[in-house]
Amino acid sequence: MAAGWNKLDGAKALVDSGIDRVPDFYVKPLDQRLSPQDLALHADEIPVIDVSPLLDSKPTSSDRSKEDVIAELLDASERWGFFQVINHGIGSDLTRRMLAVAHEFFQLPLAEKMVSYSTDIDAAVRYGTSVNPLKEVFLDWQDNLLHRFLPERQDQPHPWPTKPSSYELIAGEFVDQAKFLARHLLRALSEGLGLGPDYLEGEFGEHNVALRLNYYPPCPSPELAIGLRSHSDVGGLTILLQDSDIVGLQVKVQEKWKTVRSVPGALVINIGDQLQIYSNGKLKSVEHRAIVNADKARVSVGLFYDPASDVRVSPIPKFVDTEHPAAYNPCVFRDYLKNLYSKNLVGKELLESQRK
Ligand code: OGA
Ligand code: NI
């Protein structure tokens, strides 16, 4: 390991220093590592859904109606908590440029990325490595940039990272389009749950949107390290854009890890903890993780469409009755987020701690 490297410098700086083995504090305990059978399984049960009927005001060439699509989205969200979408309205040119600028960001010199280093969970732009590198025993083999678009700050100029110079234009356009898609998906789920299209949006209030760029450098022993530990997403809906030719996302399906295939042009969507709480467990926020490989750096870009920070989330009365008592305690979303960073949790422990 290069002299002078420290944990905060992260996984890419470690690889760039020329290591040939994985340092002990990146070697995950056996039960969290990748096993050879995990690599053999693909999550083919996760459906790929053409969502154009939801987005177009005019009738489309699709032979499926809006109602058919809503039924498919709901079924996937109840069964797997994950689905992929195609014909989602975000052009392939923009997704390609978004992935390219994400790669470019992580290629910047460490000192330039560290300008955005912060431990303040309210910071609008926060660069870092793993989840809580100074506290955790085993780090994740990744670096990330978390970029939040806070509704309460809309009257102030947004603090865009200034490098790469094209980031603001490309990420700004991607966030706008991904928000549009997320809003339509949320409306469809709301309708599918029998709540009417506006209900969940109303619950989310002045929703929070965050963009997260993940960078997974090549790893000399991918079977020892994990790129992003098993977790479920904390918020509402996640839209994930993956590098087109490098897989890495794995989903826990019936207690087995399965790799999500990369479908050209598709975006991966998953349900977060708050939607599981609102629906009193009908919609599933499912455990997933990212694995690493020995050959190529991978990036992914997640758009998190979440309730506003001050919203108190609890099961919606429609889903609560004597047979289905409220399964979760109410929690203000901001407090839920705070727990994510203050406790060293894995898997669905955070959501489970919210159970009545
Ligand atoms: C996330 C996430 C998976 C990936 O950012 O929450 O699950 O493949 N990412 O990077
Ligand atoms: Ni996730």
TrEMBL record:
<comment type="similarity">
    <text>Belongs to the iron/ascorbate-dependent oxidoreductase family.</text>
</comment>
<dbReference type="InterPro" id="IPR044861">
    <property type="entry name" value="IPNS-like_FE2OG_OXY"/>
</dbReference>
<dbReference type="Pfam" id="PF03171">
    <property type="entry name" value="2OG-FeII_Oxy"/>
</dbReference>
<protein>
    <submittedName>
        <fullName>2-oxoglutarate-iron(II)-dependent oxygenase</fullName>
    </submittedName>
</protein>
<dbReference type="InterPro" id="IPR026992">
    <property type="entry name" value="DIOX_N"/>
</dbReference>
<dbReference type="Pfam" id="PF14226">
    <property type="entry name" value="DIOX_N"/>
</dbReference>
<keyword id="KW-0408">Iron</keyword>
<dbReference type="GO" id="GO:0016491">
    <property type="term" value="F:oxidoreductase activity"/>
</dbReference>
<dbReference type="InterPro" id="IPR005123">
    <property type="entry name" value="Oxoglu/Fe-dep_dioxygenase_dom"/>
</dbReference>
<keyword id="KW-0560">Oxidoreductase</keyword>
<dbReference type="GO" id="GO:0046872">
    <property type="term" value="F:metal ion binding"/>
</dbReference>
<feature type="domain" description="Fe2OG dioxygenase">
    <location>
        <begin position="206"/>
        <end position="307"/>
    </location>
</feature>
<dbReference type="InterPro" id="IPR050295">
    <property type="entry name" value="Plant_2OG-oxidoreductases"/>
</dbReference>
<dbReference type="InterPro" id="IPR027443">
    <property type="entry name" value="IPNS-like_sf"/>
</dbReference>
<keyword id="KW-0479">Metal-binding</keyword>
